[in-house]
Amino acid sequence: MFREPTVENLKTLYESEIYQNLLHEFVERSNRELDNREQEAFDLFHKLVYCQRRYHILGVSFEEVLSAFEKHSDIFLEYQLAATAFFEDEDTNPYFEKSDLTGVWGLDKTYLIERFCEFYLLQTGDQKRLWYYLTVTRKMQSNRNKRYTEQITRLYHQTIGENASA
Fold first, then answer.
1. CA 90 to CA 104: how far, in whole Å?
2. Which candidate, 108, 102, 77, 109, places its Cα nearest to that of 88?
3. What is the 3-state secondary structure (H, E, C) of the chain?
4. Distance of CA 65 to the CA centre of its chain
5. Is residue 8 over pLDDT 50?
6. Which residues share a beta bridge with 108?
7. Lowest mean per-residue pLDDT among 5-9, 38-42, 52-56
8. What pTM value is reported for the model?
9. pLDDT confidence band for 76 (50 / 70 / 90)
10. Domain-by-domain residue ranges, the chain?
């Protein structure tokens, strides 16, 4: 039975031990501070609604998302650390502003839930579906979306390669 992720499902993921541990490790290893504005229930709800829209476009069941999240959280963390560092370095990345990766509000505690959609699509290897997802969610010019797709694909494969040999 297909169950699309709901705000309640995503809140359960957000509150889970695996997610909180992953978030803590991300903050620790990236030396980032997260925007904690969503501490209030109202703000958290709206951030999760935003994430739910992305998962709706992704088009997979909550069970599949949760299973993939649990199964690949280590690789996802490594990928996200590499991607965050890459896109924040304006010297090596003249094509994107920092806001292209972190959004208008910066990094908040729902950041990894939102970013998992791209990771999930990178894992499937379905470039057409990834391109569609990015076109709908990022609404950038076509050439910027193409460049972004190439960059995250390369970062994903570098991360997988590094973790396969470790």
1. 17
2. 102
3. CCCCCCHHHHHHHHHCHHHHHHHHHHHHHHCCCCECHHHCHHHHHHHHHHHHHHHHHHCCCHHHHHHHHHHCHHHHHHHHHHHHHHHHCCCCCCCCCHHHHHCCCCCECCHHHHHHHHHHHHHHCCHHHHHHHHHHHHCCCHHHHHHHHHHHHHHHHHHHHHHHHC
4. 12
5. yes
6. 35
7. 38-42
8. 0.81
9. very high
10. 7-165
Query: What span, in angstroms and rounded, lies between the C-alpha atoms of 117 and 89?
Result: 23
CA pair distance 72, 59, nearest whole angstrom? 19
What are the backbone dihedrals phi and psi of residue 108, each rounded to the nearest 5 degrees, phi first? -120, 180
Largest CA distance in the chain: 47
pLDDT digits (tens, 9 = 90+) for 52-68: 999 999 888 888 888 99
Q: Of the candidates 87, 147, 156, 148, which has an alpha carbon nearest to the alpha carbon of residue 122?
A: 156
